[in-house]
Each structure stands twice: as C-alpha cells, then as structure tokens.
Amino acid sequence: MSCKRNRLMVKSNQLVLVRHGESEFNLKNLFCGWHDAPLSAGGIEEARSVAAANLNRAKMTFDKVYCSKLCRSRETVEVILSEMKCSFLPIVSDWRLNERHYGNLTGINKRALANEYGEEMVQCWRRNYDGLPPAIDTSNIYYYQIANNPAFQEVPPTEFPLTESMRMCVDRVSPVWLEIKKDIQKGTRLLVVVHGTIARSLIKLIEDMTEEQIEKVNIPNCVPMIYDFNIKTGKLNGGLKYLGDLEYIEKMKKKVAAIGD
Predict the structure, then answer these.
(1) Which of 1, 74, 141, 213 is an S-S bond match for 209, by CB 3.0 to 4.6 Å?
(2) Which pLDDT does position 162 carry in this prediction?
(3) Is residue 198 situated within a structural domain?
(4) CB–CB of 68/97 below 8 Å?
(5) pLDDT at 2
(6) Catalytic hit among 20, 35, 46, 195
(7) Residues forming the annotated binding site?
(8) What's the confidence (pLDDT) of residue 209?
(9) Binding residues for substrate
(10) Residue 3 within any structural domain of the chain
(11) pLDDT at 9
C-alpha cells in the first residue's frame, strides 16, 4: 500500500524523448523514411555513450517504453535499456510512431537532390509543414521492401502512406500522444524513442507550437529531451530540457538542419 500511496502523492512526472541513433542511411545522407535501415556502428555508439550515458548520469528510471516498428528505433531502445540494466521493461512498438514517409525521395542522397532541384526545394520537402515529396512508386528500389515489410502488417491498407508531409505526421501521431499523456498522468515514467520528424510532431503537440515554430526545430540523434508535467492537470511545468553537453547539442542541431554532403 505504501508504494501506491507514494505514487499518488507525486505531483509531477517526466517524459523523456530520444531520437534514435545514426542509421546507415543517415551516415550516407540518404532520405530514409519507412525504409528499415539499421543503426550504423556510430549510431550504436551514440545510443550507448550519448543517450544511455546521460540518462544514467541523471539517474533516470522508467516504467515503460514507446518506439516505432522500424529497427533503428527498436535497436536504440535495446542498447539504452541494456546499458541502463532494465531490459525487462515493457515496450510498446507502434507503427504510428514510424518516421515520416519520404515517398519517392527514399534512398536518394540529399546533396545530389539539392544539386538537381535546388536547396530551396529540398528544404521545402524536408522542413515545410505542408511540403509533400512525390509519392513512392514501383520505380523506387525500396518500394517492395517497404510495402512487404512484415513489421507493417498492422497498418490498415487505407492508412499505409505513399508519401507524407509533416502535417500528415502530426495527424498520425496525435492519437498516440493522447495515449502517452494518459500514461504520464497515471504516474508512469516513460521513455519514447522515435525519429526526427516524429519527435518534432510530439514536440508540436506537447508545446502547442505553431507550424512556423516547429519548422525551425531540429532534433539531434540520441540526445535525451525531458518534459516535466503536472500529473493532475496534464500541463507542462516549464519547457524542454536537454540532457548532455550543450556545445555538442548545438553542433548536432546544426548538422541536422543542413542538407549535408
């Protein structure tokens, strides 16, 4: 009874958001989206020495984990939980937390695309709230890998995307955010390991940002982001806090914002 009573007496609860570690496609500067690219060796190290190390240093503890169906999200979770010695935690893997689908841009180098179509067009596809890449079709070498991925069996056929804007991602993520928020208000300590655009979508919903504000947000790989909530009202106590070296975080934000080489 004392454990339950103590949980009820807690007035606030924290949510930790983490973008997965560097993937093989990140390493090659390719649009990835729903292609199931694994973590690179550097991404595994980021999960260990950036995400898990900072969470351990801050003495964070969790009751439950949310992630996507994509292996780069799940692999990051596995490394973090292993390093934190809590691999027993329940994990909710939800397709609605998959990265934004980049349509027919999937597998294309961002710099090569910018050289062909111009940086403004590529940044529109990447950052404009309603920027919609061309839909993926059978000419794309990743079309069938994505369409036939057994991890996506739970996706309703009418909701399986061929391309997405950020607006569409926010709409997709909104019901999951309501589920996460219920957990927060129950006092469940959550770790959510997702993707760049999905983290931005959650941040928009959490902070009620405008479209223009969220377009300017960049999420570095594996840097833990903490929100503190009032359990009774569900409202934020203050703003977003990053765990880690601030100079490193700013450097990685700029890297994410750039089109790259």
Answers:
(1) 213
(2) 98
(3) yes
(4) yes
(5) 35
(6) 20
(7) 19-26, 72, 99-102, 110, 126-127
(8) 97
(9) 19-26, 72, 99-102, 110, 126-127
(10) no
(11) 62
Residue 32 belongs to what domain range? Answer: 10-257
Task: Label residue 232 exposed, middle or buried (CB < 10 Å: 0-12, 13-18, 19+).
Answer: exposed
Predicted pLDDT of residue 188: 97
In this predicted structure, what is the pLDDT of residue 4?
Answer: 43
Determine whether 35 is an active site residue: no
For residue 54, being part of any structural domain is answered with: yes
* Residue among 6, 1, 13, 19 nearest 243 (CA): 19
Total number of domains in the chain: 1
Residue 96's nearest CA partner among 23, 192, 228 is 192
The one catalytic residue among 78, 99, 164, 195: 99
CA atoms within 13 A on the CB side of 99: 25
At 3 the pLDDT is 42
Q: Which residue ranges of the chain lie beneath pLDDT 50?
A: 1-5
- Taken in order 23, 200, 215, 173, the sign of the CA dihedral is positive
184: helix, strand or coil: helix
In a domain, 192, yes or no: yes
CATH number of the domain where residue 105 is located: 3.40.50.1240
| Residue 247 known to be catalytic | no
Closest by CA position to 253, among listed 216, 224, 220, 226: 220
Task: Give pLDDT tens digits for 178-220.
Answer: 999 999 999 999 999 999 999 999 999 999 999 999 999 999 9
Residues written for the chain: 261
